[in-house]
């Protein structure tokens, strides 16, 4: 489904970025000739101290480099960055050249902005274009908690960074990390689920950083974390597949509304609640649903819409002021008449998602239909977790192309569609049963690059990696694709990124070694087991 690699404008961006980086490195090296020689003079005690310091900074370093190698490299990088920062402090113009041309130092900025919760706060964004940004709606970052959920201490560092990157809110997909209670739901939470006090603390941290929180609770498809349990097996649409819940089961509505009530209770004052409803692969297949369709003279489409409207209507009426959001994929093939007759637009706002480099696959007919039916829509891109279920390093260029394509869509249809916001998704698993893909810290540079891009005022902006490197405190511009080099950063969780990049490099070297004809011909497992091979090889 996904295609990996550089495409079109992204390839030009990477080339331009590489040239700019090369020129900057040459400048740095030339300006450090004299100081480099002096800095190389030091006693053994100083070198030992430097090595020890570096090992403490990054416990993974010894996997691929000796302490002496790391010390020399880090010492050289520190001299470069010290020289750059020194020049930036002395020469304001030089400092600005390291960032976006329209970068504005917000240290003295007193501008305010209204966040999604309606509260006016000081604008602390580090990325502020002079002209109109490519996207002017809300910028929501998706945190997928169905695998490797962060500790509370990580949120204390993450939320200020997200605020500075221009995020306005968080979409929290709890799944089994939510502390459901009561006889009906008490078996759902994972053993490491957040407690109620944990969630209150997370919400406080978010609010203090000007971030609204939008909870996401699945109510149709992707209910594996519930339906995998034998207690709920009879509620499956298809008995052997624990993905889709039967909308006609007597217990379905009661269970889902209880879950909704508990989530809303722990999130007082929320404006939006995402109820999922994507990828409902099995529908109208059980006896109960077949009988319901006969009794009501429904098609499968009407069965689907009936359940979505019922859930959204409950939220609107029980929890006044809360607007339900849904993924849009099940709406795409419906006719305009079917959508109008269901009155679904009165109850929900759709989130149109597509994570591939070419979003134009979403047809103009679909956008015309949505413009006629829905007063407002959201869009959803991806910053990680969309290029393979087992990937552990992020291809930034792939996701940047996805955001470029989305901005083309916004520019083309904003005259007839109100784009309320963008959800920048970061998937941690493809579903409840799959392995982990890129861990959150490994995807932070991609998130930063794409948030910087959509807040800029130039669709072909090539300086984005430079400003992101400044924000994430990296020594060089972030590499846009795996294998294009490594960078050392100081953002929260950067050691995870460093470890993932080292693993990727080692894995490539091993794969190259194993594909060598000498290994294939003379160093097979048989040769190794029996110590039997040609000495020349």
UniProtKB/TrEMBL annotation:
Transmembrane segments: none annotated. Gene3D superfamilies: Glycosidases. Residues 190-349 form the Glycoside hydrolase family 20 catalytic domain. It holds the Pfam family Glyco_hydro_20. The keyword Hydrolase applies. It catalyses: Hydrolysis of terminal non-reducing N-acetyl-D-hexosamine residues in N-acetyl-beta-D-hexosaminides. Its EC number is 3.2.1.52. CDD domains: GH20_GcnA-like (cd06565). Keywords: Hydrolase. It is an enzyme of class 3 (hydrolase). InterPro entries: GH, Glyco_hydro_20_cat, HEXDC-like. Belongs to the glycosyl hydrolase 20 family. This is beta-N-acetylhexosaminidase. It comes from Timema podura.
């Amino acid at each position: 489904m996904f295609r990996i690699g550089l495409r079109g404008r992204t390839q030009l961006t990477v080339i331009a970025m590489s040239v700019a980086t090369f020129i900057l490195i040459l400048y740095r090296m030339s300006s450090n000739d004299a100081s480099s020689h002096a800095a190389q003079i030091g006693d053994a005690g100083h070198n030992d101290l430097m090595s020890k310091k570096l090992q403490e900074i990054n416990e993974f370093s010894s996997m691929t480099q000796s302490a002496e190698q790391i010390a020399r490299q880090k010492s050289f990088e520190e001299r470069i960055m010290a020289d750059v920062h020194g020049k930036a402090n002395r020469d304001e113009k030089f400092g600005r050249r390291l960032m976006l041309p329209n970068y504005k130092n917000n240290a003295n900025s007193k501008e305010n902005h209204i966040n999604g919760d309606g509260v006016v706060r000081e604008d602390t964004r580090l990325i502020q274009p002079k002209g109109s940004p490519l996207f002017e709606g809300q910028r929501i970052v998706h945190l997928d908690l169905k695998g490797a959920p962060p500790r509370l201490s990580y949120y204390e560092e993450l939320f200020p960074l997200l605020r500075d990157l221009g995020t306005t809110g968080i979409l929290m997909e709890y799944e089994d990390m939510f502390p459901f209670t009561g006889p009906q739901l008490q078996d759902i939470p994972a053993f490491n689920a957040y407690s109620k006090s944990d969630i209150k603390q997370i919400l406080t941290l978010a609010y203090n950083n000007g971030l609204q929180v939008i909870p996401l609770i699945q109510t149709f498809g992707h209910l594996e974390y519930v339906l995998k349990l034998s207690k709920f097996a009879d509620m499956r649409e298809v008995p052997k597949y624990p993905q889709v819940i039967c909308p006609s089961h007597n217990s379905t509505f009661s269970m889902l509304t209880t879950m909704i009530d508990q989530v809303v209770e722990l999130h007082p004052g929320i404006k939006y609640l995402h109820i999922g409803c994507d990828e409902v692969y099995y529908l109208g297949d059980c006896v109960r649903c077949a009988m319901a369709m006969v009794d009501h003279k429904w098609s499968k489409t009407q069965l689907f819409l009936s359940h979505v409207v019922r859930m959204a209507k409950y939220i609107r009426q029980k929890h006044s002021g809360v607007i339900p959001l849904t993924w849009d994929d099940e709406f795409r093939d419906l006719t305009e008449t079917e959508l109008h007759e269901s009155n679904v637009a009165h109850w929900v706002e759709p989130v149109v998602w597509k994570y591939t480099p070419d979003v134009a696959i979403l047809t103009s007919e679909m956008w015309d239909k949505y413009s006629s039916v829905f007063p407002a829509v959201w869009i959803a891109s991806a910053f990680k977790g969309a290029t393979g279920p087992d990937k552990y390093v992020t291809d930034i260029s792939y996701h940047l192309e996805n955001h470029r394509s989305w901005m083309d869509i916004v520019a083309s249809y904003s005259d007839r569609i109100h784009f309320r916001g963008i959800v920048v998704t970061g998937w941690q698993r493809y579903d409840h049963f799959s392995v982990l893909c890129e861990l959150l810290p490994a995807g932070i540079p991609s998130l930063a690059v794409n948030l910087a891009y959509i807040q800029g005022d130039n669709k072909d902006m090539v300086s984005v990696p430079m400003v992101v490197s400044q924000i994430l405190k990296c020594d060089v511009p972030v590499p846009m694709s795996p294998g294009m080099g490594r960078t050392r950063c100081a953002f929260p969780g950067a050691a995870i990124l460093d470890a993932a990049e080292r693993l990727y490099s080692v894995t490539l070297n091993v794969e190259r070694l194993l594909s060598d004809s000498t290994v294939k011909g003379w160093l097979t497992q048989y040769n190794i087991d029996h110590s039997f091979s040609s000495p020349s090889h």
